[in-house]
Amino acid sequence: MAQEQRRRRARRIDAGVLARIDDLAINHGLGASAIERALRDDEEMRQRGGASLRTIQDRVRELLPRTSGGDAWRLEDADPDEGRAVLEVLAEMARVTNGKRSSLSRDQAAWVVRIDRAAPGLLAWDRYRLAVAYSARSARGEPTADLDMLVGFHPWASERDNNAYRRAIADGAIPEPPRHLLSVATPTLSDFAEVEKAFGKLRRQEEGEKPSD
Fold first, then answer.
1. What DSSP element (H or E) covers 161?
2. Rounded to an integer, what distance in angstroms lies between the CA atom of residue 112 and that of residue 191?
């Protein structure tokens, strides 16, 4: 019942607002209260209706569930192929987020393995982001056609593939993924720099230092 109530609340929110919540939680490491403030301070998000703190809390819990105890993925429970794929992603998570993220749920890890097999050449951080998106949508029973097409077109592989992917979106042939996942199509060093800067700022704040711009 509680899960269905959360789904109903999420369905009432503008898709752009949900995408912004996902971006702030995954790529900037913000908690629910900080995300609520960010949405409130963003004119576009206000015009789109924003989101209540409770709804944001539900969304963040679904995206980034606590992985303590039996739900956390462990190498001792994995087969050799799975271990390589997941450990590579865990190492990249720890590096990019300054240690704030270094664990996955079993379901997220399973998605990492699926994506690793379906999308060779995709960067580890992007495999993590896609795994989080797939896992959350699967738990909510939501469609994944936009994610499937992103993986299927593999636009990160070459300029030709990237152009074909963007043309298909522009023509309305395939659905566009959330904005915070569009950079998966053409990952650049600047994408990682922004994420690392965000998590570095969080670390300095937690240590009581004045963050630099």
1. helix 159-170
2. 20
